[in-house]
Write a structure and sequence with these properties.
Blueprint (H helix, E strand, L loop, with lengths): L1 H18 L14 E3 L10 E6 L5 H17 L2 E6 L4 H13 L4 E4 L4 H13 L4 E5 L13 E4 L1 H14 L5 E5 L5 H14 L2 E5 L7 H14 L5 E4 L2 H15 L4 E5 L3 H8 L5 E4 L2 H18 L9 E4 L1 E3 L4 H8 L5
Parallel strand pairs: 2-3, 2-4, 4-5, 5-6, 6-12, 7-8, 7-9, 9-10, 10-11
Antiparallel strand pairs: 1-3, 11-13
Helix pairs in contact: 1-10, 2-10, 3-4, 5-6, 7-8, 9-11
């Protein structure tokens, strides 16, 4: 029975990488934890935990849904915690999982230095680790045997190619979180393939979208040569970048990373040029499966390399399909 579950889980995980997608939202408080009830007494002895920097919003709710579905399919005990972009709190949650009986842990790593000590404690305790969503460049340094997610530099490079194809000449890259290396990598990747990309650190980010819109608008007004905006979050794209572009009254191409209902509708309407899809449902699902296989059979899949779930692109041609799947909570 266990071998059958492993095969089903692996096939399901592969399907999610192909079919899963993402959404993005900024609302939410730090989570008190979500636990999946074990469906199988055979596997309930395995306790797998996940600690992310998530904010409880649309993006992370989809990643969590993927992880919970994997736990349900496998029948393992599962606990999910998120820190609402508080790196110190995330480190404390990881340490609590180490002392709380977690046998395997998946962790997002936007600020690896802040959680390194906690990860070292987990590694010293013999707990298998994977990083997910962020941390593709540093997962080995954190003691993880693989990373599940999108390489942010590659995603940025692809965005740069897309902006070039769309005829932009100078792109603004607003960064909505400080100390998130993944966001910086997206901008850096775009510079590699596009050329003239200017970063803009937003002072309030997702916490105050009106202020973020005002800051983007001010930059557009100060520099009329900017004709493209690479938003790094779907809410920044729809609630800040698009209104800012409309307010200055000139033709500005806006693309984003990640999805939301509003972003997909904007793509379908032709207002938003594209969204890069890192398929975070698959990130959650695959992380649980990989840790389960390690606990069950000692597997360390990935061959010492990251396991990529993106980048993919949502554009006007496939936006309607994405909207249909989003209703299922997997996009």
């Amino acid at each position: 029975m266990k071998s059958s579950r492993v095969m089903i889980a692996a096939l399901a995980a592969g399907a999610m990488v192909l079919a899963g997608c993402s959404s993005s939202d900024s609302s939410g408080e730090a989570s008190e934890g979500d636990t999946a009830a074990a469906a199988s007494t055979d596997n309930a002895e395995y306790k797998i935990c996940m600690v992310t920097h998530g904010d409880g919003g649309g993006f992370w709710s989809v990643a969590k849904a993927g992880a919970l579905k994997a736990a349900e399919d496998l029948g393992v005990t599962f606990d999910y915690q998120e820190s609402n972009n508080d790196a110190e709190a995330q480190a404390q949650l990881i340490e609590a999982d180490v002392s709380g009986g977690c046998e395997a842990i998946a962790v997002s790593a936007p600020n690896p230095d802040a959680i390194k000590g906690a990860m070292e404690k987990a590694e010293a305790a013999g707990i298998p680790l994977v990083t997910m969503n962020s941390g593709s460049q540093v997962f080995k340094d954190l003691g993880a045997f693989t990373h599940v997610g999108q390489d942010e530099i590659i995603a940025g490079r692809e965005a740069g190619v897309k902006f070039k194809e769309l005829g932009a000449t100078k792109v603004l890259c607003p960064i909505q979180e400080q100390n998130n290396i993944g966001l910086q990598e997206r901008c850096d990747g775009a510079k590699e393939t596009f050329g003239e990309v200017e970063n803009l650190q937003l002072s309030a980010g997702l916490a105050d979208l009106a202020k973020s819109q005002a800051e983007i608008q001010a930059k557009l007004e100060a520099d009329p040569s900017i004709d493209g905006i690479f938003a790094l979050n779907a809410d920044i794209a729809t609630a800040a970048a698009l209104p800012a572009a409309a307010a200055v009254g000139r033709d500005i191409t806006v693309g984003t990373v990640d999805l939301s209902g509003d972003a997909v509708q904007s793509i379908a309407d032709g207002d938003l040029a594209f969204a890069i899809d890192q398929q975070q449902y698959a990130q959650g699902y695959m992380s649980v499966v990989l840790l389960y296989l390690n606990l069950l059979n000692g597997h360390e899949l990935g061959g010492g390399l990251p396991m990529y779930t993106g980048p993919g692109f949502v554009v006007e041609d496939n936006a309607s399909l994405v909207q249909e799947l989003a209703a299922n909570g997997t996009r």
